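Researcher: Quick one. two chains, 774 residues in total.
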Amino acid sequence: MATIIINGEEYPIPEGEKLNAIQMAKRVGVEIPYYCWHPSLSVVANCRMCEVEVGSKDPKTGEIKMMPKLVPGCQTPAKDGTVLVTDSDKVKEHHRMIMELLLINHPLDCPVCDQAGECGLQDYSYQHGQANHRFVEERTVNPRKDVSSLIQLNADRCIMCTRCVRFTREITGTAELQVMRRGSHAEIATFPGVTLDDNPLAGNVVDLCPVGALLDKDFLHKQRVWFLSKHDSVCAGCAGGCNISVEENKGKIWRVKPRHNPHVNDYWICDGTRYGYKAESAPDDLIPGMFALDKDGEHVATPIDQALRKVDRGLKDAVVDGKVVAGILSPFLTVEEAYLMARYLKEVTNAAVLAIGPVPFKGEDRTYAPDKTKGRSGDTTFLDPKPFTLYAEKAPNARGVRAVLEHVQGSVVEYDDLLKKVEAGEVGALYVAGGYIEGWIDEATAAKVREKVGFVVVQDTKVSALAHKADVVLAAATYAEKAGSYVNVDNRLQYAGASLPPRDGSLPGLDLFAILLDRPGPARSGEVLAELAAKAPAFAAAAGGVIPEFGVVLGAGAPKAEPPAFVDAWFAPMGAAKSR
Amino acid sequence: MRLDDPKLKKIEPPKLSLADRFYLPQVAAGLKVTGEHILGVIFKDQAFTVQYPEEQHVPSPVYRGVHRLNKDEEGRPKCVACMLCATACPAHCIDIVGATAPESWPDREKYPESFVIDELRCIYCGMCEEACPVEAIELTGLYDLTGLSREEMIFDKTKLLSVFDVTRDAEPMKFTTPPPAGTGPTQALESPVS
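Model:
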């Protein structure tokens, strides 16, 4: 078995992976500091922070020969017999020197810098640097500038790691950014007349920046990062299901950051995800509470229990009248919500018709497929390039809802087919569960539905044309307010936690259906998923209601054990935040 | 922290002397101190109390009273909205809304759009003053903080800056400019509240 010696101890090297010294050391709990290295970008080794003592052990004699000079860890492959020394005085003195050189022109403006608290310079300066500053000349001051309408560059904070430049060249292939001039005059800049505005992945350069040079103007100066609570979630913007971390404080979402998932979004998210939270946190057009029609045909605010009783009675009256009860399950529902809704309507009458809501499509799929060598500038040996796709299907869970309907009903009724049934006047009561981010029903269709259907329930987050005409309007939770799982375009079931409590007057769909079903106790998505997994073979992979970190592909058997998600050292929670 | 933590220092209470164990001599010693104070007030005019409000109490220079927001030479708030005071505050009584500084302030990137301290929630510990990297927030010697409603006791930026105007002469900024010669401790000042 291949082994590596790190700081005098021998460790086995995991098979089937190509790791460099930084990754290998991290696996065994030894930290090698770095700035410019990123697992999905080519190795350029220009920050010199990760230099360690490297040697090799002769397999025959067992003699260890060290290289005379320090070697960048990012460029050193972890192979059999490699010897790494990361804690010698020579290495420590080198780290101290590099920190001092990197900080020569760095302004001391941590109090106003948005990166403070998750900054590589702060962390490593504290761990490896020194307290005094020997440089007495005047520091270079570069003015702030914009590289796009949403990203600001504070050039004097930059340490020239070129992660952002490599991202635009290697991942998106658009190459808007460059290094201008040389030596101590070097500066990150866009090419003349070019901005990052047209790059839908531009926001990622902010996440890549290890210091506070590239900043998100949307978040600029709004919050300090240590105030934010991070919640693991999944983007509901398209069928891709990118893993995100929703960061909230005082009941408000302030920013959205990507979470590493090698099977879905790698390390990136698109700007639609990054700024999409605004649509969900605009309280003006969200349904503020439960409403029901009174005798004069006016919507009046109704307590939750009364509204739900009206729903139950309305649906059951339609059954007594011998009319069809139908349900529309939008592709924005979680798997658990769809399951409970389908079960409830089937409990009202077994003849209930369950249809999937319209699946919104916008534009075309757009894939960024970085090549292992094309466009890359440095060492690409350790790369495992993964494509990133922005899907045209703008709903997170169409496959999940279909799978649930297939299990409960045996087949999926399409939205258009249900509309035909409505037009024919067959449907007596209709329960619509929405949750769409954008408007989904036009005025004419809504009027037609209202005219033909005796009893209409709309459970939605935003006011739609149909909500104005419905008999009962139920305020459901937005994606940020509900917990549940989604099935993405690759049939991968992923769990999204709730980031915010449900806003006043609303309840997550899961709780609404649990009350309608008379389920005892609070509805937990894990329990509902476990129930579904036990009954439906399609969801067998989610047995017990527990979904692994990277999700699980439905029908593909148990997932393999995988290394933990990559997080840059400065973004990893430290101190008290670790247990938060 | 665990009980067997090596960093824990164990301290034994001091042993009682014979007089301590008899109890009465210590009572007498206590009464002696009380008596000295009574006699001091009667015969030597050594009272610790003052005839407030006719007579104003002057607190010590390190007294921690109402906060003020310092202004720079151009009259702008010195605060850069770094929110370190809000982070340090154990009572969570400081609320700051930061914003990008106007273009006309070239020396600064960020400023507080709103700066609110709930003076009723505050415990006057002075941690905010300690945490501030630009000496923008300071606790003054104003102690007669009164108000007719809770809302009135929530100080906004204007009010906190006005406390600076009221106290700037009596209490110059502690760190930026040395106090002019001959300035005594805090003088009695008109409260900005009443």
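Chain A touches chain B at residues 109, 111-112, 144, 220-224, 226-227 (CB under 8 Å).
Researcher: Thanks, that's what I needed.
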